[in-house]
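Input (structure):
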């Protein structure tokens, strides 16, 4: 499933993938910015829009579930 995601997603798309509410996902991007990347949902500004890299979603999933069993 993760391989099918675009390289960059809107915050709403990332929220859907992570099964979070839209407001919670935006709160986590604010947390990421305020903590200088120590916690929260990583994102990049592209123009004046926030975009969440697929790699960030992959890291979150691995942190929660652990590495894929071989």
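Output (sequence):
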């Amino acid at each position: 499933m993760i391989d099918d995601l675009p390289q960059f997603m809107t915050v709403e798309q990332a929220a859907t993938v992570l099964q979070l509410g839209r407001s919670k996902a935006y709160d986590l991007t604010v947390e990421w910015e305020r903590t200088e990347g120590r916690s929260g949902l990583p994102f990049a500004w592209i123009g004046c829009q926030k975009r969440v890299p697929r790699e960030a979603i992959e890291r979150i999933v691995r942190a929660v579930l652990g590495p894929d069993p071989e």
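Notes: DSSP finds three helices and three strands in the chain. Residues 2-65 form a domain with the Arc Repressor Mutant, subunit A fold (CATH 1.10.10).
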